[in-house]
Amino acid sequence: MKTKFREIIGKAGNVVFLYPMVLVIALLTSVGAIYMAETNYSDKLLFTYSKITMCCGLGISLLFALKMLSQRIGKAFLLEIFGVIFLIGFYFVFPDEKKEFIETYGYIIAITFLLSHLLVSFIPFLDKNRELNFWQYNKNLFVNIFLTVIFTGVLTGGVELAVLAVDKLFDFDFNDKLYADLFFVLAIFGSCFIFLLFNEIGLNYLEKDGKYPVILKFFTQFILIPLLFIYVIILYFYSFKILINWQLPRGWVSYLVLAYSIVGILALLLVHPLKENNTKSWVKIFSKVFYFTIIPLIILLFTAIFTRILEYGYTEPRYFVLLLALWLLSIVIYFVFKKNSSIKFIPISLFAFGVFALIFPYLNAFSVAKRSQKSELLKLLNEKQLLSNNKIDFQKKVTDTIVNEIGDKFEFLAERKQEDFLLDLVDSKKNHTLENEIKVNPFLSLRYSVQSEFTNTNRTITSDYERLSLESKKQYITIDNYQYFFNLRNYNDDTKEINGDKFNIIERSDKGITLKVDLNSKEEVDFTPGINNLFKEYSGRKGVIKLPEISLEKDLGKYHIKVVFLNISNDKSPYNKAGAIYYDNAVLLIKEK
Questions:
Q1: Parallel, antiparallel, or unpaired for β 457-458 and 398-399?
Q2: Phi and psi of 391, rounded to 5°?
Q3: Do 505 and 493 form a contact (C-beta atoms < 8 A)?
Q4: Residues 6+ apart with CB under 8 A from 38
Q5: 114 falls in which pLDDT band (50, 70, 90)?
Q6: H-helix or E-strand containing 567?
Q7: Which of 356-360, 460-464, 507-511 has the lowest mean pLDDT?
Q8: Contacts of 472 (CB under 8 A, 6+ apart)
Q9: Is 280 helix (H, G, I), strand (E, B) or coil?
Q10: Residues 6+ positions from 150 with CB-CB distance below 8 Å
Q11: Would you list the DSSP string of 352-411?
Q12: Nearby residues of 105 by Cβ (< 8 Å), 6 or more positions away
């Protein structure tokens, strides 16, 4: 027992010695996640914590990849410095304020995380040969990840239950935040430490030759490949249906083709050594047949993609789907025509396509999407003859479908900071309100503002869903002579204490809006009727209505209370014709009378 304990301590020490930077960045990620969980939603620093935590999370895989490279070529210190510099630079890619964080940054994060994990898979094997070592390395990483998930799940669950047992049995009354803190530490730092334990000494251990796992062969041969066979039959039948009916494919078929292709490639990677060991094996036959089965599906894939692109233009998701299709085409061409092909081409080529999509000048995803949507907007305006002296004539008769499409494109381009282009289309003398909204707050409800500017709209869309949004023209709160200021916590009950008086704030949204405040559980004011009356005044209207201020006031004991909303909306549907009222930004102001 003592020997085993010493062995475990020794391995843990080796992990700390071999991967100090990876462990430090994992610990920082855990701490950042805890700060995010415990920081009030309205805290200005929350967005900063989020950016730091995201960069640290990216650093786990990046620094591990660089560590694997250093074990091949040396220069560990320089590579780690480079990794830290990259993470610092990546932090400054993102905006300073949360309101400017739009979906394009989400794409940047997702693609960069994918690239960092792809880097782990091939970075130590950029030189030629080492094909079997490359496969063994990735197979061992795959197995270690699977084991890490199991061990971390058991450890996290066990520790959480142990703390809960101590809390309940011995009446320690632990803060509920402790459970979330433990989860973040064990799930992030703990899982990282366990994964590194499984990797032992690193690259030399991961790439060493080992016996092919029987369970992996069974899973691929009797489960994965039969499922792929069923899947491809369905896709081929759908292709025949398209040819018989002579109709364009549905948009979502592209995702099915990509899923089949990627899972098939994964299956081939899993059984790669079997193909090398037995040239007449079923694996060899499957590997050759598979790439030929993809060829007709690639034609279907490109047809589906370009059907959408030619009709609506490029957006970032369509660009990425097209890029995956081009990558898949390159994979097929490479493995069909290249003799002595290498499986290293798969992750390396995907990494190259991903880098191209993010940073290649003029042709990256974001540049292409902006140019495309500008062209689509101008094309739409010209086709519908809505331009007069190169300005949009909002008085012309137009259908609501066209109005909605114009509003969508305005919002899309405003989010991507194309204000100058949009302002050139708006007559500032006639549409100064819209012009100001584009300048000051370019993508908050801009779509609805553009739609409301069209005064001669022919309704063609029959929809049972309607939204009316009330927005304050002042996107700030004036405190005046109020003494106390509280943020409402998005439908979470809260208690505040002022000079010994307890204010119980009751917020509900599940069965209609409710907003009440009671004082010392004796007196109560109900703002709910006032909120409902706000919308009764504008009954029958939809879209966005700008108001000087949205507020309600009441007396409560010796206090005067005021609720101020920056925005509040009412959504009507067939299931709730009365409407569901909700708000995002609201504050409670209190003063003594």
A1: parallel
A2: -120, 145
A3: yes
A4: 177, 180
A5: very high
A6: strand 567-573
A7: 460-464
A8: 546, 547, 548, 549, 550, 564, 565, 566, 567
A9: coil
A10: none
A11: HHHHHHHHSTTTSHHHHHHHHHHHHHHHHHHHTT-EETTEE-TTS-EEHHHHHHHHHHHH
A12: 93, 94, 95
Provide the angle, in degrees to the nearest 10, between the axes of the packed helices 131-170 and 177-184.
160
Distance between start and end Cα atoms, the chain: 72
Residues 6 or more apart whose Cβ sits within 8 Å of residue 460? 399, 400, 401
Segment 92-109 shows an average pLDDT of 90
Parallel, antiparallel or unpaired: strands 514-519 and 523-526? antiparallel
Position 512 pLDDT exceeds 60: yes
Token reading at 71: 């074990």
What percent of the chain clears pLDDT 90, i.e. is strictly above it?
Answer: 39
pLDDT digits (tens, 9 = 90+) for 268-285: 888 777 665 554 456 667
Query: Coil, helix or strand for 28?
Result: helix
Q: Determine the distance from the C-alpha atom of residue 535 to the mean position of all C-alpha atoms in its chain, rounded to a whole number.
A: 34
Pair of tokens at residue 344: 């290293």
* Cβ neighbourhood burial of 548 (10 Å; 0-12, 13-18, 19+): exposed
CA contacts within 13 A on the Cβ side of 212: 17
pLDDT digits (tens, 9 = 90+) for 30-87: 999 999 888 876 677 889 999 999 999 999 999 999 999 999 998 999 999 999 999 9
Place of tokens 């992990």: 15
C-beta separation of 125 from 133 below 8 A? yes
Q: What are phi and psi of 501, to 5 degrees?
A: -95, 135
Contacts of 385 (CB under 8 A, 6+ apart): 396
Query: Of 193-207, 270-284, 465-479, where does mean pLDDT reach its minimum?
Result: 270-284
3-state secondary structure of 253: helix
At 131, phi and psi to the nearest 5? -60, -50
**310 Cβ partners below 8 Å, 6+ apart?**
none
Within 13 A of 452's CA, how many CA atoms are on the CB side?
18
DSSP label at residue 448: H
| 8 A C-beta contact, residue 458 and residue 398 | yes
DSSP 248: P
Mean pLDDT (whole number) for 1-14: 75
Coil, strand or helix at 169: helix
Phi and psi (nearest 5°) for 543?
Answer: 95, -150
* Four-CA torsion 530, 536, 541, 547, nearest 10 degrees: -40
- Contact, 588 vs 477, CB < 8 A? no
Tell me how long the chain is.
593
Integer Cα distance of 526 and 491 in angstroms:
15
Cα–Cα distance between 552 and 564 in angstroms, integer? 7
Question: Which residues are paired to 487 by β-bridges?
Answer: 587
Burial classification of residue 187, based on how many CB atoms lie within 10 Å of its CB (0-12 exposed, 13-18 middle, 19 or more buried): middle
Contact between 268 and 287 under an 8 Å Cβ cutoff? The reply is yes
Greatest alpha-carbon span in the chain: 91
Angle at which helices 45-73 and 103-122 cross, to 10°: 20
Rounded to whole angstroms, the Cα distance separating 566 from 43 reads 17
Among 154-168, 191-205, 455-469, the range scoring the smallest mean pLDDT is: 455-469
Tokens representing 169 are 């049995």
The helix (H) or strand (E) run that includes residue 31 is helix 20-38
